[in-house]
Predict the structure.
Amino acid sequence: MAWNNQSGGGGPWRPNNPGPWGSGPSGGGGGGGGSGGPNPPDLEELLRRSQDRLKSVMPGGGFGAGGIAAIVGLAALGWLATGIYTVQPNEAGIETVFGKFTERTMSGLNYNWPYPIGAAMKLRVTDRNSIDIGFRTREDPRRPSTQTQIDVNEESLMLTGDENIADVKFRVIWQIDPVRPEDYAFNVREPRETIKAVSESVMREIVGRTQIQRILTAERKLIEPAAQEATQRVLNDYKAGVVILAVQLLSVDPPEQVIAAFRDVTAAQQDMERSRNEAETYANRVVPEARGSAARILQEAEGYREQTVAEARGQAARFTQIYEQYRNAPEVTRERMYLETMERVLAGVSKTIIDQPTGQGVVPFLPLGQLNDFPQNQSQPGQRPTPAPQVQQQGVRR
């Protein structure tokens, strides 16, 4: 080498020869330190020492064929050792040789040909990723702990089936397919942008087939699974190696200029649904009651009919029996019929006993009915007692 000069003089950088820093060493000597400050390092001395140490390691004290082979061997071992890599439990390894996919490896210690022959790609297959469509969330520079939402109208404004405009903001949650992560690595150049474009296109198609009132009210929960299924189907056709976990509708509103009118319409529809539910509740309560009342009336009528028919049949059978007895003994039967009739007629009326023998006078009688009711009419504590009934005397003069 040109700078390998073993003679004295301090090498090519002498006091009169400027060094690589633009000025020569201060102090005027090669080894002494003058008053001008510390001397710069002597590069020739460092290189000479390095050469001496390398020669002491080499067999024979020089760069022979064995030394070169040892250096090449060590370099080859070091190069092969770079092919060792570790796959974490939440990752999947993708091995390639000359850029071609060869094997999918699981978590643990693995080996592949080192660069540039082979390469190993590690994908996080268990991480959940999200894409916001229609808005962006950014941190407020004035408040680092808070986030601000920025609307992206070119993504959120969509045309509905009844030619209205809806402002739709939604989020797509996805992850790499752990079964075929190589599809995610090689089949699609920009997977995230592809997922965003496909999900936005699918959402526009679904919204374009639906009326705006249904989007704002009833069919909002039906759009999410439909969008998830359609997006997954398109990405499967692309062989993107992506699993769509969910599509979340964050907000569905009409344009800002007419949002107040749409809210009034939505409130009116909710009132209509509430009134309808109340009417159905009332009908569900009243109709069973009416049916129960009708069944009760029918049963009472059936019972009255059976009772009346039975009584009529009984009266007819009794009349037939009495007629048979009358044919056998008319006088006795008439007397009995008269007595039974009078018993029924006079059972509930007040009676006066008249003495049959001729003569004048009053026949005393005892009011047994009032005497029987006397214990029930006794006064309660704190009330005046009821006087006992007096024996009345009634009669007729002859």
Observations:
- The chain has a mean pLDDT of 77.
- The chain has ten helices and eleven strands.
- The two ends are 181 Å apart (CA to CA).
